[in-house]
Amino acid sequence: MNRAAGSHGSDSAEVLARLRELRELDAPTHGGRVLSYVYDAGLPELDALAGRAAELARPLNGLDPTTFPSVAAMERDLISFTRRALNGHRRRLGGPVVGSVTSGGTESCLLAVKAARDLWRRRHPDSRTVPRLVAPVTAHAAFQKAARMFDLEWCPVPCDTDGSVRATELIGHLDDDVALVVVSAPAYPSGAMDPIGSVSDAASARGIPCHVDACFGGLALPWWPGAPVWDFRLPGVTSISADLHKFGYAPKGVSVLLHRGRAPHRAQFFATTGWPGYPVVNPTLLGSRSISPIAAAWAITRRLGAEGYRELTASCERATHRLVRAVDGIPGLAVQGRPMGPVLSLVADESVPSVRRVDPHHLTDALTRLGFMIQHQPGHTQSNGVRLPHSAHLTITPVTEQTAREFIVALQSAADAVRGRRPASPVAALAAMRMLGYGVDGRVPGPSAAWAILRSVGVSKRAKPGDQAQLMALVERLPPPVAEALLCELLARIVEP
Ligand SMILES: Cc1ncc(COP(=O)(O)O)c(C=O)c1O
C-alpha cells in the first residue's frame, strides 16, 4: 500500500491500522513517562468522557455561534468556570470580567498583547512611538512572538540566576510608552512566581495594563496551598490567560483569556463588513474553529467541578514535594530557585566541585534512555550579561504521583551515570560556524547549510536525536538568529515529504 495518501483510497481499517502504527512511535501521552507537553489527570474515565464530547462536537464550526448556539453555551460555561477560579466573578472595579475561549496559550497571549496595543494606540492617537511590551525574560516566548507580530518593542527584564525577577527592576521600566506589562503565575522555565502584587499596583498607578500569564498555573494555583494572591483580587491585574489544555486536563486546543472590563475585551476582536462575503466577526485569531477541544474541556470541567480540581491539584502538590525531597538527596543536582506550583527546573549544583556536578542536558538524555522524558532548557545570557543556567524542566501532573517511585529511581540512576561529566561542547560545529561567518553582520545559514550543521550534531529527519545535549549546547552557544535558523530548519525538514 502507498504509505502516503495515494491516488486510490484505502479501506478504513487499513487507514486506522496505519495511524496506530504511526502513534507507536510517539512518546507515551499517558502513564507519567513524559514530564512536559502532556497533562495527564491519570483518570481514564475523564479521557473517555473528553473523547465522547469531542466526537459530539466534531462537525461544528465555531466561526458562528449564532448558527450553533451550543458553541456559545459551552464557551459561556468555560468562561464562567475559569472566571470563578480566578476570582473574577465578584463585582470588581473596572467592570465585569469577561473573555474568550481561544485555541491555546499562545493565542491567548497574542490576543492580550493585541488588545493592549490597540488600546495604547487609542490613548496616543498622534504618537509615532513604537509602544513597549515589558516582561521578565522568563515570560513565555509567545510574548516575543506577539511583539513581533503586532509591532511592539520587546523589553525583557533580566532575572536573577534563580529565575526570579525583582519587582523594582520591572517597575523601573514602566513608562508612558509601555502598552502592557506581563507577569507570570508561574513562569514556565523556572517555576518562579513573579511579583504580581507590587508590579500590578505600580502599573495601575501609572495607567498601564498588567497581564498575568497563568497559562501554566491558571487551573492549578487556585487550589495550591500557600499560593499568594495573584488573580483578579488584585485591582491592577487587567487580564489573565489560563489554559484548559494544561492543568484543565482537556485535550490540546483550548485556553481562556479574561479581561477586566468589556472595552478591553472588545479590543481583541476583528470585524469587517468591507468585503462582499458574510460579515466577519472574529473574537480570536482564527476564522473557522474546531469545537471538539472546547466540548471536551466543557465536559471535563463539569465532571470535575472545583472540588475535582482541588483533589487533582493536591495530588500534583504531593508529587512535587516528593520530587523536591528526592532531588535534595541527589548530589550535584539542585532545584532552581523557589518554584510555586506543579513545576520544577533542575540545575547543576554550583556549590559542589565540577567533578560532582550533574549536568542537566546529560541528565535529560540519560533519563530518556531510562524511559522518562523531561525537557531540555538551554542556558540564556541576558541583556545585563548575567547568564541563566541551562536546566531541565519537569511538569508534574497527578499521574506523576502514581509513578513517583519509579521516576525517582530513574532520576537517581541517570544522575549517577552522568555525574562529573563536563557539559557538552560541539567544538567542531561551532568552529565550522565561525569559519563560515555565521552570526557576523546578521549572516545566518540557509536551508542546506543549516541542515548540514544539524546533521553534524546527530540530528536526523525521522527521529529525535538520541543525544540532544549536543544540539542544546550548540543552540545555547550560537547567536540567537543563527540558532533560530537551525531550529526552524529542523522543524521544516521533518515534515518535508
Ligand atoms: C506560562 C505559559 N504561557 C504560555 C504558554 C504557551 O501555551 P501553548 O503551548 O498552549 O501555546 C505556555 C506553554 O507552556 C506557558 O507555560
TrEMBL record:
Regions annotated as coiled coil: none
Q: Which residues carry this modification: N6-(pyridoxal phosphate)lysine?
A: 246
Q: Which UniProt keywords apply?
A: Lyase, Pyridoxal phosphate
Tell me a GO biological process for this protein: carboxylic acid metabolic process
Q: Which InterPro entries match?
A: GrpII_AminoAcid_Decarb, PyrdxlP-dep_de-COase
The Gene Ontology terms for molecular function here are: carboxy-lyase activity; pyridoxal phosphate binding
Work out whether the entry's keyword set contains Signal: no
The UniProt transmembrane annotation reads none
Please state the span of the N-terminal signal peptide per the UniProt entry.
none
Name the cofactor(s) required for activity, per the record. pyridoxal 5'-phosphate
Q: What is this protein called?
A: Glutamate/tyrosine decarboxylase-like PLP-dependent enzyme
Q: Which organism was this protein described from?
A: Leucobacter soli
